[in-house]
Amino acid sequence: MNTKQLTAAMAISDQAGTARAGLVSDGSRASRVPVAIEGAPIRIENIAKQYGSTTAVSGIDLDIRAGEFLSLLGPSGSGKTTLLMMLAGFEMPSAGRLILGASDITRLAPNKRNIGMVFQRYALFPHMTVYQNIAYPLRMRKVPKAEIPERVERALSMVQLNGFGDRMPNQLSGGQQQRVAVARALVFEPPVLLMDEPLSALDKKMRERMQIEIKQLQQRLGVTVVYVTHDQEEALTMSDRIAVMGNGQIQQVGTAFELYERPATPFVADFIGKMNFIPSRCIAVDDECIVVRVIGDVLIRLPRDQVRGGLSPVAGDMLELAIRPERVRIEKLGRSVGSGVSGVVEARAYVGAFQSYVVRLADGTMLHVQSQSGESSDCSFEERQSVDITFEPTALHAFRGD
Q: Which residues contact residue 164 at a Cβ distance below 8 angstroms, ignoring those fewer than 6 apart?
């Protein structure tokens, strides 16, 4: 993930905002669906989950706002799905409380929580029509038979599947099945919708289209969504806020911009997009800046507000400097102005708008660099070519070193 990709992701998220005006992604008018769902806030208080001696989730505190789209983002084994399953009621916490609105739902059965759920594999009943699948939650809740047709049709309209009620699931595309699963989860108008990697089975183009459609629907209805994914671009595109999880804990909660530009921990810095880490030593500290030494005798003056993780470094401390590949400048040897380090291009790749390089620095550190593609020979470097590397001081983040 680079600045251009992040900007594109934010643009898609902004595009989803047009749903408030009743527009769908192709510019046509959306179905006029009454806004009948009022999202509810969720409070997660010191939630933990143990499986024998294994800790899956450890002491999580999180407030999710009413009507918010919040993603739980992290690698496999980070605890995000376990946390979602506890919210749904399919797993019981070992400790802590779950509050939905003003109600404690910690020990409630799943069918008593009034929460919609969309699973990774949709979980549609193959022997039922689309209409019957969507009507199923209403029948289980003893909704009067006379009300069911209107509510099912309204749910089909929400997901732009009018006229599909008589079809069987195997007659639908993957994207259409996913929409049916969303309609079934929303038909009983829950204040919260939980989604467990619902787009993972779709191809890239369909995933991108469904990301916009789901975000549009959520904004139009105002339902609170908690969305689990391991795909960072998906989370950056769809979410109002993202909770990055690792090792059973929340590492940071913030907007896409905050996570990308101001990561709180090395884990977040490394997981969101690409990041270079450079060993350094703090040699001086004042009220406004710290001075660090990298790659031999190169000195960099770093503003104190770029020191992350609540650190208060003193002279002699080992630090890790982190910087995005697109914030590193690569130039021909001898062309750099100011403090720079030399290196050798180990690999290069043309990736459209960018040239991507791997540069080996004098101390053996491998640095990833992205520079904008251009016709000038000054913008292109060959393998085994010696180059100068400079860093934008304002783009550096300082973390505790090993």
A: 130, 156, 172, 176, 180
**Amino acid, res. 235:** A
The CB density around residue 394, as the number of other CB atoms within 10 Å, is: 9
Q: Is 60 exceeded by the pLDDT of residue 23?
A: no
Taking residue 169's Cβ as centre, other Cβ atoms within 10 Å add up to 18
Nearest to 291 by CA among 310, 317, 266: 317
Map out the domains of the chain as residue ranges.
3-114+190-267, 275-400
Confidence of residue 29 (pLDDT cuts 50, 70, 90): very low
Q: Cβ contacts of residue 286 below 8 Å, gap of 6+?
A: none
At the top level of CATH, the class of 275-400 is mainly beta
Residue that the structure tokens 């660090």 belong to: 292
| Residue from 44, 73, 80 nearest 60 by CA | 44
SS3 readout for 125-160: CCCCCHHHHHHHHHHHCCCCHHHHHHHHHHHHHHCC
What is the pTM for the complete model shown? 0.83
4-13, 114-123, 348-357, 376-385: which has the minimum mean pLDDT? Answer: 4-13
Residue 7 has pLDDT above 90, yes or no: no
- Residue 113: count other Cβ atoms within 10 Å of its Cβ: 19
Query: Per-residue confidence at 396, pLDDT binned at 50, 70, 90?
Result: very high
Q: In whole angstroms, what is the distance from residue 115 CA to residue 133 CA?
A: 17
Provide mean pLDDT across the span 323-342. Answer: 81
Question: Would you say 358 and 295 are in contact if contact means Cβ atoms under 8 Å apart?
Answer: no
Amino acid of residue 390: T
Res 102 pLDDT > 50 = yes
Report in angstroms the alpha-carbon separations of 224 from 215, 221, 367.
Answer: 11, 9, 41
Q: Are 182 and 194 in contact (CB under 8 A)?
A: no
Name the CATH architecture for the domain at 3-114+190-267. 3-Layer(aba) Sandwich (3.40)
The pLDDT of residue 203 is 85
